[in-house]
Amino acid sequence: MKKRVFSGIQPTGEIHIGRYLGAIRHWVSMQDNYDSIICVVDLHAITVPQDPRLLKGRIREFAGLLLAAGIDAERSILFVQSHVSAHSELAWILNCFIPMGWMQRMTQFKEKSVKQKEQVSVGLFDYPALMAADILLYDTDVVPVGEDQKQHVELARDAAQRFNNIYGETFVLPEPVIPDVGARIMGLDDPNKKMSGSEMGVGHSIALLDSPDVIRSKIMKATTDSHRDVVFDESRPGIFNLLTIYQIITGEGKKEIESRFAGKGYGDLKKALAEVVVEVLRPLQERYRQITADPGHIDAILKSGAEKARPLAVRTLARVKEKVGLG
Ligand code: TYM
User: Fold this and answer.
1) Which among 92, 135, 216, 247 has most CB atoms closer than 10 A?
2) Cα separation, 185 vs 179, whole angstroms
3) Which pTM value belongs to this model?
4) What pLDDT was estimated at residue 241?
């Protein structure tokens, strides 16, 4: 029996290379050895205000980009969260078992709620319970995510454990899987901030659909420092971030990269990095164009994904309801 992988992405902002390098490419490579389920989490997206017309389009765009990046709908289940209502139902039940104190410790809520002040929704606070439901519905063993989601996956595990302690074995305990390199890709304009889909500044991130010229221009303008030598030094976050992106895409070792750029400057690294990013995105962009050429294709995949996910989710939900004494 293969182990089960589950992971998700919010259809908000853009898919930038942080999300790609920190998470999506791992989902793609794990398909070989795991039973994979990948979800476009639209219910999470509405925890902050969304324009309905844009949201609907973005859900399809994100699904298309995941397929273009290599998620294989034959081997993996790709679906939209709101198409399987068991996610909301289990989230409610989990709400009744997750202590407030656990939720109040979530750093992402604290950061996001500062930005939104009094407009912050209950849904944003409750976001981790819905995420726990996503994971626990599918008897998930491993959850590959970037650094920023580790605390949420741990909360899902704690919630599962607490429920199991009360009602006996019900949920599989999931483990977060965080990559050694690239778990936190930083913004190009400000390497002290995580590259984020909600930062709108031009030059903050590289989107998977950016043209070669836009990619080159963003990388050449990336914030660095006044040093010159190209070395992996964490105290120089700008150059460290660019080197990390280069390291992941080329698959070369740190020493190898440092010797490649010995005697050269930051500008040389930026030029070389721009070319490797352009080349890694070129086939993905080409596949995206092919996938979107047939307007019904993505919808058909998502429909079939939901049909495969639903029975798995319904089975877990029934088990939970039975334990709790519902119905
Ligand atoms: P989201 O949509 O913010 O991001 C998708 C994935 O990309 C990772 N990521 C990054 N990795 C490295 N560097 C970055 N700058 C960077 N930015 C984003 C994220 O860690 C994530 O793995 N809450 C989740 C979605 C979700 C989910 C789930 C994930 C909902 N339910 C169940 C796993 C399991 C989120 O907002 O990811």
Assistant:
1) 135
2) 11
3) 0.97
4) 98
In the chain, residues under CATH classification 3.40.50.620 are 4-178+295-324
Residues forming CATH 1.10.240.10 domain(s) in the chain = 212-289
Q: Give CATH for domain 212-289.
A: 1.10.240.10
- Which tens digit of pLDDT belongs to each residue from 111-141? 888 877 778 999 999 999 999 999 999 999 9
Tokens encoding 81: 């969260």
> What is the 39 CA–ligand 1 centroid distance (Å)?
11
Q: What gap in Å lies between CA 143 and CA 150, rounded to an integer?
A: 9
- Out of 28, 145, 196, 241, mutate this one to test ligand 1's pocket (max ligand atoms within 8 Å of CB): namely 145
The one-letter code for the residue type at 146 is G
The answer to whether the CB of 195 is under 6 A from ligand 1 is yes
Ligand 1 contact, 41 CB (< 6 A): yes
- Cβ of 130 less than 6 Å from ligand 1: no
pLDDT confidence of residue 5: 98
> 277 and 215 in contact (C-beta within 8 Å)?
yes
Structure confidence by residue, pLDDT tens digits, 7-42: 999 999 999 999 999 999 999 999 999 999 999 999
CA torsion sign for 50, 302, 128, 144 is negative
What b/e sequence results for 253-277 when a residue is b if at least 16 CB atoms lie within 10 Å of its CB, and e otherwise? eeeebeeebeeeebeebbebbbeeb
Q: Model confidence at 327, in pLDDT bands (50, 70, 90)?
A: confident
Task: Enter the tokens of residue 293.
Answer: 């050429």
What atom of ligand 1 comes closest to residue 147's alpha carbon?
20
Is the domain covering 4-178+295-324 a CATH 3.40.50.980 domain? no
**Which pLDDT score is estimated for 118?**
78
DSSP helix/strand/coil, 23: helix
Q: Is the pLDDT of residue 166 over 80?
A: yes
User: Could you tell me how far CA 68 lies from the centroid of its own chain?
Assistant: 15
pLDDT at residue 92 above 80?
yes
Biggest distance spanned by C-alpha atoms of the chain: 71
